[in-house]
Specification:
Structural class of chain A: mainly alpha
Radius of gyration of chain A: 23 Å
Number of strands of chain A: 0
Oligomer: heterodimer
Strand content of chain A: under 5%
Number of helices of chain A: 17
Largest sheet of chain A: none
Strand content of chain B: 15-25%
Number of helices of chain B: 5
Strand order of the largest sheet of chain B: 3-2-1-5-8
Order of helices and strands of chain A: HHHHHHHHHHHHHHHHH
Number of strands of chain B: 10
Distance between the termini of chain A: 33 Å
Order of helices and strands of chain B: HHHEEEHEEEEEEEH
Largest sheet of chain B: 5 strands, mixed
Structural class of chain B: alpha+beta
Chain lengths: ~550, ~300
């Protein structure tokens, strides 16, 4: 057994209480590393469940005509795929990374609120169960799309209420997690680590945490109003009582657009560590990376209605949201340029983390460019609610967020588990994922341009071939992730593999990964930095 | 050597036989996948790669704008990744490249903030022109209300020639059943307008400005016809509008584009564009039908 699952050593346990063992270790967990592991395992489970739903969708769409599911179930599948992937897979996975890495990166002994940390994880379990079990409730799972637009939500069965409650729990969990992260980063950095010397992953998470605190209550408000419309006779969004369905969309996307950046900013942080480490060069333009992240976060609050160009806004409204959306391309571009400038004249090697990081930049940028095209309102009128949008957001969320997390896993798992992954298997996972991802989602651009609407259980004959290609690609992509778990994650959890050095990403010349996480042994001991370390002037090394 | 050669040729034969099977399967599958389906004029084409052939000025402008944006994006893409892949090839450790030490340049940062900003402005200017034009619904020759109803479209001719005509348009029942039965069966020929054929199409005259007022009676739907470059949500309790001026006669197809419940995929839009005379004849016919149907 490896360090992740092994019973921890008690060498430094001087708090007068024993660390619980067995199941109690996990249920009563207050250690940031254990909670990080729990988050990551939970989110991978949800990734697999959401993936199965996606494959059911793609299987149905393999050919025209309904072969496997009826249209009701199809809508349930698309809805729950979206909700589970966004709230169950991507968001918790980044919290898992934050739990593991932020204390290690800033030289803190743990997260600021260890017991709240436990609570915010365990809140996710009932929420996840409610989401998944909604398929077995009368009338099936919610089928109004992950955006839960009113007044369609008013037609849903009882599972809608449990879905709303699940989202409330997940929101509460996210807010607690964010408070924890903000307080940890602001109060618990080792002496000498000023904000502008802080690792980029901490910076991006600090900004993400503020975004979460700002917008999760907005989502809670929107779905609570939906709930009272459904059961308590209010008419916030119910046009039959004078309510405004478009108001729902405004509130939802005021949450929803910052949410997009909540799902990508921590990914930017991970990439900003890996590119310098494997280029053997410091990150180019650290300060401008911080400012770009902040700019993206601020701009994300003033672009929400670009999701609503077809609702019939006044022309001035469309112009404003078109301009503000296009503006986001500027700070995002700065980030990409900075990464490439970091690679420029470096001394690059391409271990799996670097492969995923370069793959991220390449494929994420395609998603970014289609985003600029979608921002242009006259073109968006053609593409809104078509497969072009589906292609776009999978390019930024799968090839963006998910690839960054894979990169982060390969980069940091030696520190977590104490063993190296198999480089060959990592490369197989990367190339297999990259090819099958593009086979799946690239043809969707064509489908969208040709006018195929999203969330369709059946489609005109002319769309058949690209749908068939996308379905084949999707199955290969799904199997690649099963391979990742069985061939990469599982052996690491069992402690199989070459023992990892304290810093596996440093070459004979002493160049490579920098940061405090590489100043502690691999695997990282159960307790680290119990006394604040003394740092050198760059705040990346411990002295004395 | 000989042994090896034998194995090789065996493998080759095996490979060929297999590739033959694979090819055969692929061919069978493609012929099935193709379903002998043809392009649908006014609707999607088989394996269409770009936006549909435009039938209005606005749709043409959108296509131009899309090419314009694509051009800029492809140039940016090639430039940025040209640099990245050059760097990946030349600045790798395995070719002995030593890492440089630079990590900051305010001038460069300012440059690559300003240049994208200027490019974005260059993109926004032509987009603004098209956007303002497509939002101008004034001066319509004919005003029609399109009401989204789960799961069909109601059309009311409100103002202009044909005023007073009203009907509901529903997906062809045989096509709906074909969908439930798993699509076209072997031997059966799927129609080119599969899931796009309605009982009563919306009929409009050519070269006239048609204003479509959208609303809905239950949940949000969206009225969309790609060849006209229009898409407008139909929102219950509210009215919104859009417009088009079809420049040629023919049949044009669209589908509901906002998730509206289980039959979302089964409420198509079929617009029949007629010449002025044909349209007048159709209006006369409809008016006569209505008069005949009126109880005494």
């Amino acid at each position: 057994m490896s360090a992740v699952l092994d019973h921890p050593a008690h060498a430094h346990d001087d708090h007068g209480h024993a660390t619980p063992t067995g199941w109690q270790r996990w249920v009563y967990a207050t250690n940031h590393k254990d909670i990080g592991t729990l988050y990551l395992l939970f989110s991978f489970t949800m990734l697999m469940i959401g993936g199965v739903l996606a494959l059911l969708i793609r299987a149905e769409l393999f050919q025209p005509g309904l072969q496997l599911v009826n249209p009701e179930l199809f809508n349930q599948l698309t809805t729950m795929h979206g909700l589970i992937m966004v709230f169950g897979a991507i968001m918790p996975a980044f919290v898992g990374f934050a739990n593991w890495m932020i204390p290690l990166q800033i030289g803190a002994s743990d997260m600021a609120f260890a017991r709240m940390n436990n609570f915010s994880f365990w809140l996710m379990i009932p929420a996840g169960l409610m989401l998944v079990s909604s398929f077995f409730m009368p009338g099936g799972a919610p089928a109004a799309g992950w955006t839960l637009y009113a007044p369609l939500t008013l037609q849903m069965g009882p599972s809608m209420d449990s879905g709303i409650f699940a989202m409330h729990l997940l929101g509460a969990s996210s807010i607690m997690g964010s408070i924890n992260i903000i307080v940890t980063i602001l109060n618990m950095r080792a002496p000498g680590m000023t904000l502008m010397k802080m690792p980029m992953f901490c910076w991006t998470w600090l900004i993400t945490a503020y975004l979460l605190i700002a917008v999760m209550p907005v989502l809670a408000g929107a779905i609570t109003m939906t709930l009272t419309d459904r059961h308590f006779g209010t008419s916030f969004f119910n046009p039959a009582g004078g309510g405004d369905p478009v108001m729902y969309q405004h509130i939802f996307w005021f949450f929803g657009h910052p949410e997009v950046y909540i799902m990508i900013l921590p990914a930017f942080g991970i990439i900003s560590h890996i590119i310098p480490a494997f280029s053997r060069k410091r990150l180019f333009g650290y300060a401008s990376m911080v400012y770009a992240t902040g700019s993206i976060a601020i701009l994300s609050f003033v672009v929400w209605a670009h999701h609503m160009f077809t609702t019939g806004m006044p022309v001035t409204g469309q112009l404003f949201f078109m301009y503000s959306t296009m503006l986001i391309a500027v700070p995002t571009g700065v980030k990409v340029f900075n990464w490439i400038a970091t690679m420029w004249r470096g001394s690059m090697t391409f271990e799996t983390p670097m492969l995923f990081a370069v793959g991220f930049i390449f494929v994420f940028t395609i998603g970014g460019l289609t985003g600029v095209i979608l921002a242009v309102a006259p073109i968006d009128i053609q593409l809104q609610d078509t497969y072009y949008v589906v292609a776009h957001f999978h390019y930024v969320l799968v090839a963006g967020s998910l690839y960054a997390m894979f990169a982060g896993y390969y980069y940091w798992s030696p520190k977590w588990t104490g063993v190296m992954y198999s480089e060959r298997r990592g490369q197989i996972h990367f190339w297999w994922s990259l090819v099958s991802f593009n086979v799946t989602f690239f043809p969707m651009h064509f489908l969208g341009l040709a006018g195929m609407p999203r969330r369709y259980a059946d489609y005109p004959m002319q769309f058949a071939d690209f749908n068939a290609v996308a379905s084949v690609g999707a199955f290969f992509f799904g199997f690649a992730q099963v391979y990742f778990f069985l061939a990469v994650v599982l052996p690491a959890m069992r402690g199989k593999g070459a023992p990892a050095k304290q810093n596996p990403w440093v070459d004979e010349g002493g160049k490579g990964a920098e940061g405090l996480e590489w100043e502690v042994p691999s695997p990282a001991p159960f307790h680290t930095f119990e006394t604040p370390p003394r740092l050198d002037s760059s705040a990346t090394r411990i002295i004395g | 050597m000989m042994n090896q050669g034998n194995t090789m040729s065996n493998m080759k034969r095996l490979g060929w036989r297999h590739s033959g099977t694979v090819l055969g399967l692929a061919a069978a599958w493609f012929s099935r996948a193709a379903y002998a389906v043809n392009d649908l004029p006014g609707g999607p084409a088989v394996r269409q790669l770009n936006l549909q052939r435009p039938a209005t000025l606005i749709a043409g402008e959108q296509i131009w704008l899309h090419w314009f944006m694509m051009g800029i994006c492809v140039v940016i893409f090639l430039a940025v990744f040209g640099v990245m892949f050059y760097s990946i090839l030349k600045h790798r450790k395995s070719v002995g490249h030593k890492a440089a030490n630079f990590h900051e340049s305010t001038a460069v940062e300012i440059a690559w903030t300003i240049v994208p900003f200027v490019i974005v402005i260059g993109m926004a200017l032509p987009a603004t022109k098209v956007l303002v034009a497509q939002k101008d619904t004034t001066g319509a020759d004919l005003t029609i209300k399109a009401t989204g109803i789960q799961w069909k479209w109601g059309y009311d001719y409100l103002k202009g020639e044909g005023e007073g005509i009203a009907f509901v348009s529903t997906l062809d029942i045989a096509q709906r059943q074909m969908s439930d039965n798993g699509g076209a069966k072997p031997g059966e020929i799927a129609p080119d307008d599969y899931l796009l054929k309605v009982d009563k199409p919306l009929v409009v005259p050519v070269n006239k400005k048609i204003r479509i007022i959208t609303t809905a009676s239950d949940v949000i739907h969206a009225f969309a016809v790609p060849a006209f470059g229009i898409k407008q949500d139909a929102i219950p309790g509210f009215v919104r509008d859009t417009w088009f001026r079809a420049e040629r006669v023919g049949d044009f197809y669209g589908q509901c584009q906002e998730l509206c419940g289980k039959e979302h995929a089964y409420m198509p839009i079929h617009v029949k564009v007629l010449s002025a005379q044909d349209y007048s004849a159709w209006v006369a016919l409809k008016t006569a039908e209505k008069a005949a149907a009126k109880p005494l």
